[in-house]
């Protein structure tokens, strides 16, 4: 079947067959935000969170999450990622942690899901490490901000 769909001719869910697609360099960047109380942001900034260095642990968790995407998202292709970068920083304009993840591959399918998973896992790790002092934190704005490679070309979020 040459059509890229998650359904077979009987309407059953299946992994899309990408075997006929060309391998190209593909990159995706996703972002997320964890909003918190001012005191929580201060604890992160000063290294006062009892569970440790929040941003370093969340960065590692995000990288690990990207690598486990096919275990978490049904019908997602297992990919051999060539690069995963996860950056976390305290926001300058609000008590929040800003997260950006970029995934790269030379392959037949994109890495948007891996970048989104990296951001989501990093954000959940920030929440987990800080929930003892701030259960009201919110995880928002999880989105793809850049995608390049493949037949559909380049996407840049507005």
UniProtKB/TrEMBL annotation:
Its EC number is 4.6.1.17. CDD domains: MoaC_PE (cd01420). The keyword Amino-acid biosynthesis does not apply. One of its GO terms (biological process) is Mo-molybdopterin cofactor biosynthetic process. It is an enzyme of class 4 (lyase). Gene3D superfamilies: Molybdopterin cofactor biosynthesis C (MoaC) domain. Residues 15-150 form the Molybdopterin cofactor biosynthesis C (MoaC) domain. The active site is at 128. Substrate binds at residues 75-77, 113-114. SUPFAM superfamilies: Molybdenum cofactor biosynthesis protein C, MoaC (SSF55040). It comes from the Bacteria. Pathway: Cofactor biosynthesis; molybdopterin biosynthesis. Keywords: Lyase, Molybdenum cofactor biosynthesis. It holds the Pfam family MoaC. GO terms for molecular function: cyclic pyranopterin monophosphate synthase activity. It catalyses: (8S)-3',8-cyclo-7,8-dihydroguanosine 5'-triphosphate = cyclic pyranopterin phosphate + diphosphate. HAMAP family: MoaC_B. Belongs to the MoaC family. Homohexamer; trimer of dimers. Catalyzes the conversion of (8S)-3',8-cyclo-7,8-dihydroguanosine 5'-triphosphate to cyclic pyranopterin monophosphate (cPMP). This is Cyclic pyranopterin monophosphate synthase. It comes from Rhodovibrio salinarum.
